[in-house]
Amino acid sequence: MKLRSTESFWPLKHAMDTSYPSIDSDINTQILIIGGGITGALIAYKLINEGKKVVLVDRRDIGNGSTAASTALLQYEIDVPLHELINLRGLECAVDSYKNGKKAIFDLRSIIDDIKSDCQFEFKKSIYFCSLKKDLPFLKNEFIARKKYGFDVNWLERWDLEKFGLNALAAIESKTAAVLDPYRLAQDLYVYCRENGMKIFDRTNIISTKDLNGKLIAQTENKYNIVADHIIHCSGYESTETLTEKVVNLKSTYVIASESIPNLSSIFKNAVFWDTSKPYLYFRSTPDNRIIMGGGDEDFKDSKKRDKFLPKKEKFLLNKFQKKFPRINFKIDYSWAGTFGETKDGLPYFGKPNPNKNEHYILGFGGNGITFSIMAMNSIMDSINNKENPDLEYYRFGR
């Protein structure tokens, strides 16, 4: 599967300063991680710190799949609003998912400090806004639910939003959100893990896995075998190639990044923005005063069809931006498209699809992939050790 179009912003910014070999012999290990994006990096970090022997492989260059296409907005808010998620999954699961997402942002800050990553992590406010009168009751219900269950939120009116330069009717302001450079963080995590004993192989495509006498054998395209006690799939949207259960609807999504804007206001830079439209639009700044905007999702996953739409989507997104922020001069410098997916409840999938087989999946689908991956770090050891964990129940397969 081709997960993104052309070259996106992050790899060009860094020009691949770290490289890894492809596999050239059979290997034995305790744990094999399949997938070299940000999810694989975070799970590897957890396992290496637990003293595990880990091998990680990716079919392309490390960090060059969905991670390279991510806009990296870190929010505790899930694609499904809290008041709707309560109806879908029950009060406990919904509120815990939102609270765990909030905790994940602070946990990630600690990881970044631990490995001394220069990934430009910054705390921000989150502005969830609506532009249509028909969406006001929906937004108000969400505000009431968040207040009721202890989230620190404020209600903003049109005149409050004008301070951001935003043309909208109302918004929920949340105190806890963040942004970062996802490609840089993934690369820094892999350097840390390699220095602490993990073996990493890129351009290594796993074509099959089988269970033999309690061991799992993953065979590569070049006929090498990796024998492991456990396999952890961190392959994101490509997991649809190995799962029998349908857990995600794949879509195409589009992103534009501006030239640097020297006079970009500090109040804009101190927030991330997203709206109530479906599919929603989202906006963030970078430390060098660029603006990254995403949205325009389409209900198809064909990469050729997706990429053909990119010029049209550039115009669509730019037009939307100009309507929302009419005083900001957005000149497109980069654009790209990627594969995106939604689950039925906006939540991730963790654990073993087959309880009798030591193949685990960490799938942080949707707009919260990075925070979901942080949450998964707290349950992966229990999945390996067959211990109960609330997250393994909340986000189980077959739910």
What would you say this structure looks like, in words?
- This protein has 399 residues and is an alpha/beta fold.
- It is built from 14 helices and 17 strands.
- Helix 2 runs parallel beside helix 8 and helix 2 runs parallel beside helix 12.
Distance between the termini: 26 Å
Q: Radius of gyration from the CA trace? A: 21 Å
Determine the number of helices (DSSP H or I, runs of at least 4 residues): 14
Q: Helical proportion? A: 25-40%
Structural class: alpha/beta
Major sheet characteristics? 9 strands, mixed
Q: Which blocks of ≥5 consecutive residues have pLDDT under 50?
A: none
**Overall pLDDT confidence:** 94
Instruction: Tell me the number of strands.
Output: 17
Strand composition percent: 25-35%
- Shape verdict: globular
